[in-house]
Write a structure and sequence with these properties.
With about 550 residues, this protein is mainly beta. It is built from two helices and 41 strands. Strands 27, 30, 32, 33, 36, 37, 38 and 40 form an eight-stranded mixed β-sheet that branches. Strands 13-25-22-16-19-18-23 form a seven-stranded mixed β-sheet, with no helix packed on it. Strands 2-11-9-4-7-6 form a six-stranded mixed β-sheet, with no helix packed on it. Strand 6 and strand 7 form a beta hairpin. The termini are far apart.
Length: about 550
């Protein structure tokens, strides 16, 4: 009887436990992603060797937690038999295995964000026919998770738009004009129904003409001055573009160096209609865009050849040769002027003060490649004062410029401008100082220029170093009340002329200085990837550039929307 009672009690406890155990949260859902389609060069390819086309499959974890269970990903290769041969990319790790039937990959955890599952290299099979297609699908499985599969359509053959590099001058003066000649060919096996010409210019380069079949938009990323923006132009060139034919854009496309041009870039590309980059959320209609009055841009065949047709459109066989880029070095200058302050108070007072610099132009200056800072503001704090509030973008250093751990109370501060300084932009850094003791005519300084290991020196493209440094003076009167842990009030500073008091830079109108004709150097464009590629515009090297802009925003085709 005792045993029976014990079992009943145990059953009751189990039932109670089941009743009180919270239900498990819904399993996470992860999305696999890859390109919608890829095209393969027909076997054996150019030069007699099969040409590889790469495809990347990725996993997207949109949650804010790492999934810490093992996941298995599988790609069935059966549908590719006789159409394409598959190998793992050389950099692929040992967590993926390839057999004749499938690719299998394991992941021990799925980090937040997007990561690669597998990179594959595909070539057309020896006996494959142009137009043959197959689906390549990746699936995932894991305990406690659900996966949405991704499918890439593989096709033998396809169009291949190839863009010729235009002959442009790298060195120019403000106001110079030159024509952008657009010539492209379809070197693939399939025709293209409609081509989109895309041109992107940085702030110092203007496209003179406007056309009715073109859209114009500016990059309006929040938190950055308007001078950072790129202008994007996309023009739909209607018609059928046959394999083996060469086409030239019929209509002037004139590039003009703006008065503020200095270190600038251009990218231009052609895409099959529908494959062009979509307008991003941070784009807005260009402020200069206006109706073109009936003018349309078109392309005319220059060298027609025999055309091979295919009924089914396919992805571009080599999207990397659809795009060209160019860098410009304009002979111009930018005058950076330090803005200091003169303060009055007594011991124990806390004062708010802004200091920084402004650009009197005429040029804007930007490092569009690496994103390095254009200018440093070097602030030396007057004796008797202690910094109690440091603005964003500034760090405390020792008197010799060496690193220190504590930001408050430092004798010196370095403040960063960011990678763009507009031609009429003011940078203002709001500090808070406490006058700890009266020091007659205590003097510090505010210096703007190029960062060095020792501190700051004048920029090579700045024609007037006489205004690189401004005084920071505190006129303390008397001993004042005994300092307390919390300030009893604040004294308004009387700064020298400066711009906004916000912790981030804001573009405000300012006078402009006359350029001296110094050649642009230092702080300019540097190398990236797609829609923007490589170059370092700095010093004398800048004037030797001849091209190679950026493919920075062209990734592999496809992706997670």
């Amino acid at each position: 009887m005792r045993k029976r009672t014990s079992l009943l009690a145990a059953g009751a406890l189990v039932a109670l436990g089941l009743a009180t155990t919270p239900a498990h949260a819904a399993d996470p859902v992860f999305t696999l992603a890859g390109p919608a389609g890829i095209g393969l060069r027909p076997h054996p390819g150019q030069g007699g060797e099969p040409q590889k086309t790469s495809v990347e499959f990725r996993i997207v974890n949109d949650s804010d937690k790492t999934f810490d269970r093992q996941s298995t990903f599988t790609i069935d290769l059966g549908a590719l038999k006789g159409i394409a041969d598959v190998t793992l990319a050389k950099h692929q790790g040992a967590d993926c295995k390839l057999t004749a039937a499938a690719v299998t990959c394991k992941r021990w955890a799925l980090w937040t964000g997007e990561s690669t599952v597998v990179d594959l290299d595909l070539t057309a099979a020896k006996d494959s026919k142009v137009g043959a297609t197959a689906d390549l699908t990746v699936t995932g499985a894991a305990e406690g998770a659900t996966f949405k599969s991704a499918t890439t359509k593989v096709r033998v053959g396809g169009p291949d738009l190839v863009l010729e590099r235009a002959r442009l001058k790298a060195e120019q003066k403000p106001g110079d004009k030159q024509n952008l000649s657009i010539v492209f060919a379809n070197e693939g096996t399939d025709p293209v129904d409609g081509v989109v010409l895309e041109m992107r210019t940085s702030h110092g380069i203007d496209l003179v003409e406007q056309y009715d079949n073109c859209s114009y938009s500016d990059d309006t990323r929040p938190g950055r001055p308007w001078t950072t923006g790129w202008t994007t132009v996309q023009c739909l060139l209607e018609g059928e573009y046959e394999p083996g034919a060469v086409y030239g854009v019929d209509g002037p496309l004139t590039l003009k160096a703006a008065p503020h041009a200095f270190m600038d870039g251009l990218t231009y590309a052609v895409y099959a209609a529908g494959d062009q980059p979509k307008a991003a959320k941070n784009r807005a209609p260009a402020s200069a865009a206006k109706p073109a009055g009936g003018n349309k841009l078109a392309a005319a065949k220059q060298a027609p050849k025999a055309a091979a047709r295919s009924a089914q459109p396919a992805a571009d066989l080599d999207p990397w040769n659809n795009i060209q880029e160019f860098d410009f070095a304009t002979r111009n200058t930018a005058d950076l002027v330090a803005t200091g302050a003169s303060l009055t108070g007594k011991a124990g007072d806390t004062v708010d003060v802004d200091f920084g610099f402004r650009n009197n132009g005429p040029a804007w200056v930007a490092d569009l490649r690496l994103g390095d800072d254009i200018a440093r503001t070097d602030v030396v704090i007057p004796a008797g004062a202690r910094v109690t509030k440091v603005p964003a973008g500034c760090k405390g250093v020792n008197a010799d410029g060496g690193d220190r751990e504590q930001a408050l109370g430092a004798p010196r501060y370095f403040c960063s401008s960011g990678h763009v300084v507009g031609e009429k932009e003011t940078f203002s850094y709001p500090f808070q100082l406490k006058i700890e003791k009266a020091v007659a005519d205590a003097k510090g300084s505010v210096t703007v220029g190029r960062a060095t290991p020792q501190g700051t020196t004048g920029q090579r493209w700045d024609p007037n170093h006489g205004n690189d440094t401004a005084a920071l003076v505190i006129n303390a009167k008397g001993t004042g009340p005994t300092p307390s842990p919390t300030p009893s009030g604040t004294t308004t500073a009387s700064p020298a002329p400066t711009g906004s008091a916000t912790p981030t830079a804001t573009a405000t109108p300012s006078g402009s200085a006359t350029g001296t004709g110094v050649t642009a150097n230092g702080g300019g464009l540097a190398s990236t990837g797609s829609s923007a590629q490589a170059i370092a515009l700095g010093g004398a090297v800048l004037l030797a550039v001849g091209g190679g802009l950026f493919l920075a925003f062209r990734r592999k085709a496809g992706g997670h929307a």
